């Protein structure tokens, strides 16, 4: 009934750190990513080549990419909003590019300063050029359950954006519950709709755990045969342009759930817990992670 193997895409260094009030030093980011590269994770989203005025926390994206120790079997990805971002990312040899937009007009505008229709002509040459450079391209769709500005999102809205992104050349779409409002019945409705149109292997889920429903939503997604999940070390994360958005589901909590269900990930839970605790020390605040708290008590 459930898949036997799941791939975890670690987004903590990007989604996690973009939302921290304090700027984390480049050397600390590099140390975190190097540590994550040694946990069995095969995919790490390391930073974001957006306008540094919008996300100053990740203004050092190029330095981070240049300084990390790359493992051959790990994909190091980054967010790119436009051609300027793509050029910066390609210059430091990013492995995979992630373009991003929203299913709702309100969040799309507040996050990237454009309507949905205005976004596709910006992304088209980015995707074409990235593919020409031999990179794979991932597409994020935010606010797939609800938008902080427009309210509930219909599955048809998500499908319309996904259709267009696949047509432009992305190989995988990550579906973001950006503000962590979703419950399993809503995930069921969304995936019931989308899996009629798209191959389930081309879909990933990106749950923020704002209201404690992320793991329940993961189980519902597994039931639909989804095998790719984004998560964030220590449950760090959030979108600064979505009011009330908090961290992603914690990688270590997701690992505990999956391993307990007999689903393989190839990732070492203990090493991830230790990396999460090192982040807690660095950030000097308790993390939103159950398994980090368990590790502290051991
Ligand atoms: P804009 O202001 O409309 O852009 O921003 P513009 O093209 O008019 O350019 C304005 C200025 O920005 C110019 O500089 C450009 O050079 C500069 P100026 O002439 O004023 O000095 N600029 C750049 N600089 C460096 N790198 C670039 C770049 N682009 C423009 N790539 C833009 C449009 C999209 C760039 C802006 O809105 C932006 O950067 N937004 C990013 C917002 C963001 O990063 N949000 C968080 C990530 S998304 C997320 O977290 C959701 C996700 O996790 C999934 C989920 O949870 O749902 C993925
Ligand atoms: Mg996110």
From TrEMBL:
CDD domains linked to this entry: DRE_TIM_HMGL
Keywords for this entry? Answer: Lyase, Metal-binding
MF term (GO), any: metal ion binding
Q: What Pfam families is this protein classified in?
A: HMGL-like
Q: Name one GO biological process term.
A: L-leucine catabolic process
| Domain (Pyruvate carboxyltransferase): residue spans on this chain | 6-273
Q: Does the keyword Nucleus apply?
A: no
Its family remark reads: Belongs to the HMG-CoA lyase family.
What NCBIfam families is this protein classified in? PRK05692.1
Write the protein's name: Hydroxymethylglutaryl-CoA lyase
Natural source organism = Caryophanon latum
Q: What is the lineage of its organism?
A: Bacteria, Bacillati, Bacillota, Bacilli, Bacillales
């Amino acid at each position: 009934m459930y898949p036997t193997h799941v791939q975890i895409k670690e987004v903590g260094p990007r989604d996690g750190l973009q939302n921290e009030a304090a700027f984390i030093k480049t050397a600390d980011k590099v140390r975190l990513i190097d540590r994550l590269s040694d946990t069995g994770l095969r995919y790490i989203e390391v930073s974001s080549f957006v306008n540094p005025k919008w996300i100053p926390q990740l203004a050092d994206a190029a330095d981070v990419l240049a300084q990390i120790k790359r493992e051959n079997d790990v994909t190091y990805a980054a967010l790119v909003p436009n051609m300027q971002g793509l050029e910066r990312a390609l210059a430091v040899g990013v492995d995979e590019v992630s373009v991003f937009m929203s299913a709702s007009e309100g969040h799309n505008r507040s996050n990237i300063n454009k309507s949905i229709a205005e976004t596709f002509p910006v992304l088209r040459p980015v995707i074409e050029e990235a593919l020409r450079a031999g990179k794979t391209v991932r597409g994020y769709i935010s606010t797939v359950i609800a938008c902080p500005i427009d309210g509930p999102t219909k599955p048809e809205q998500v499908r319309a954006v996904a259709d267009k992104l696949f047509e432009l050349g992305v190989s995988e779409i990550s579906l973001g519950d950006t503000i962590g409002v979703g419950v399993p019945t809503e995930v069921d409705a969304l995936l019931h709709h989308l899996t009629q149109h798209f191959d389930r292997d081309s879909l990933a889920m990106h749950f923020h755990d704002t209201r404690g429903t992320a793991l329940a939503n993961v189980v519902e997604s597994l039931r639909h045969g989804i095998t790719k999940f984004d998560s964030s070390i220590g449950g760090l994360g959030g979108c600064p342009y979505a009011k009330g958005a908090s961290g992603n589901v914690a990688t270590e909590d997701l690992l505990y759930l999956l391993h307990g269900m007999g689903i393989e990930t190839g990732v070492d839970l203990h090493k991830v817990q230790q990396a999460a605790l090192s982040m807690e020390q660095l950030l000097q605040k308790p993390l939103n992670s159950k398994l980090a708290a368990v590790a502290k008590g051991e």
